[in-house]
Amino acid sequence: MATRLTHGLSALWRAIRELSGDDGYERYLAHRAANHPEQAVLSRRDWFAAQQQQQWTGIKRCC
Amino acid sequence: MSHKIPAIQTDYTMKTNLPPRTTRLATRAIWLVVALLGAAAVGGIALNRGETLNALWFITAALCVYAIAYRFYAAWIAATVLGIDETRATPAERLSNGRDFIPTHRWIVFGHHFAAIAGPGPLIGPTLAAQFGYLPGTLWILFGAVLGGCVQDMVTLFFSTRRDGRSLGQMARDELGNIGGSAALVATFLIMIILIAVLGLVVVNAMKNSPWATSTVAATLPIAMIVGLYMYKLRPGRVLEGSALGVTLLLLAVAAGGWVDGIPGLRVLFDHPGLTLAFAVIAYGFAAAILPVWLLLAPRDYLSTFMKLGTIILLIIAILWLRPDIKMPALTQFTDGSGPIFGGALFPFVFITIACGAVSGFHALISSGTTPKLISNERDIRMIGYGGMVLESLVAMMAMIAATVLDPGVFFAINAPAGIVGKEAAEAVATISSWGFPVSVEQMNLIARQMGEATLFARTGGAPSLAVGMASIFGSAFGEHLLALWYHFAIMFEAVFILTTLDAGTRVGRFMLQDLLGNIWQPLGRTSWYPSMLFSSAVVVAAWGYFLYIGVIDPNGGVNILWPLFGISNQILAAIALCVATGILVKSGKLKYVWVTGVPLLWLVIITSTATWQKLTSDDPRIGFLAAAQSLSDKLASGMLPPDKAAVAPQLIFNQQLDAALVLFFAALLWLIVLDMLRVCARHLQGKPVPPLSEEPHQPTQLEQAWQRD
Lengths: 63, 710
Description:
The complex is a heterodimer. Chain A is an all-alpha fold. Chain A has a domain at 23-53. Chain A is 68% helix and 0% strand. Chain A starts with a helix and ends in an 8-residue tail after the last helix. By secondary structure, chain B is mainly alpha-helical. Chain B has one domain (11-209, 272-685): Up-down Bundle (Amino acid/polyamine transporter I), CATH 1.20.1740.10. Chain B has helices at residues 11-16, 21-47, 55-82, 91-94, 106-117, 121-129, 134-161, 168-175, 178-207, 211-234, 239-262, 264-267, 274-290, 297-322, 346-353, 362-367, 381-404, 408-415, 418-421, 425-434, 441-451, 463-478, 483-520, 530-553, 559-587, 595-617, 625-637, 643-685, 703-709; strands at residues 53-54, 325-326. A two-stranded antiparallel ribbon of chain B has the order 1-2. The longest helix of chain B has 43 residues, at 643-685. At the A-B interface, helix 1, helix 2 and helix 3 of A face helix 5, helix 10, helix 11, helix 14 and helix 16 of B.
């Protein structure tokens, strides 16, 4: 019971982090490590700046 | 891969792998109960006359209608009409780049999609449409959504997913030709301008002469910047920490607004008439468009998304907890077109006023934008496309409930402009009471005092009335003594995400304009070139700023003009999306299913064309733009107008004529694209050459196996 509860809570926490983009840099690092391990990665700050710029170039919010 | 997507049994696999007979019977029995309950609730709402109706009826009706539509209609469209193929690799998988194409768990995509589509529209439209009574709006929200809006969102999402996540404009160009593509682009740009203007007007009206609301909304700017600096400089990318800080500060700002309101010296700093606030919003819009996104736009969006989701959940809980009675009658006398909030009869104006929440063309831009690039498997499309819109429709139902639990007299006193009911409080209550909705000056003063406002008369735009409705619901559920806090919390919540839409819309408008100008003179097309950025931002802000300015100086509150214009343009965008979908269905040899998108399309063409016709030709100055221009110029010529009104009259006359031209242009765009679509379909059916289907070829998905392994 207690393990199931902690399991559920940690799944919820992971979902909140992913939805908000809080874990975005970790996912970026994982993606780079899996697909382009030979290339250098951006720093946390540079990644965040690039990600924000990319995120707000299209229609992202509606009425 | 860090993503774990469990292989969940879907309806499609159930067909080949039937559960035992008893389970099947039990399932059928449950759906039969849902159907009967839904029918009883809808019937109860529709046929009830005179008896007090509880909000629970609305929720029951909504949940049953949504459940049945989602389980049967949406599943049938997905499986049969669209031919969802779960073995097919999606663009997120094929083009995965860790930036915009990312295979994502369906609940996460659902969250992103819902946060993107749900703006202030579904809260404001139903509030305004409540002037017809609770019934017309409620039925349109329910059935418009499940037969129109949800279908539009889902099919657009599906077709875009099959086309590498291409935008609506590109799909229109690929599938129908250049005419359709250009019409879609122009319509998108214009709807953006009108949308921003009307939303700006809503915020201005909510802050007008309200130091508490104005100081709270003003405080959201430095708060967003603090959060932006935190996320960008101090702790890069720590979105949740920054948002928690920001939400805490926002709640403090709501309380601090009350404190500002109580100190005369501070109070005057934030006590402004509409026009001053309109210029402040215009200046803000320009600043937000040229500042870097990390400083203002992005952090504000994090805050507004959290506030939005939190408040909607809170509202649903409060309504379920409190189960308030509906006080508005099913139908009012204003179905004949004489309504005080906006002029125009039930048909077609209820369908124009409630766009978001029933059918919203803007959603097609999201469904063919970021969302299709995240979908990891086609079978998620029903839940995200159809299900996302179902949830937005539920939000619109909550807004309808919040509007109709108010005393109708109070509702009309807040929402009716001074130009209709009179400037003086005594005059206004006399007019409204004479309509059969009793209200007194004392009652209005008491409510205003409870809400911490100087007055609530003629606070048009929908936001104050929604805030009073929400405050009374929250207040009854969570504590009466906090009414003023709840009211200003609701105002802040609406303002925060209206301003986000305003920033984001200005930015998108700027990109579209730069794209367009780049064809004329290449350097103007460079999005990061500073002079081009300043110039195109200024043009976009000036365009919506003009309509906002005219809306503010309009004696009838401006909402009467701008909201129908917004509704018409939004529905026309929906019609364009449905045209593209209908064309694709016909070209894919699915003529027998064409009614799935064809019937909502036909309905939208009928209502937008009728509304356009009435807006152009009606003799009633409250409906017809040209009649309004004529009546005003007659008054001006005869010297009937007082000097202050005579001074702005020429501008108002010009604006009414401009609105007439604009609405005519919208209708022409619509008919252009409808006829173009019909031409392409007819040619296809005659075997003549048409633009080929631009669907990407099938590639088997590798993701499923990978997920099943780990």
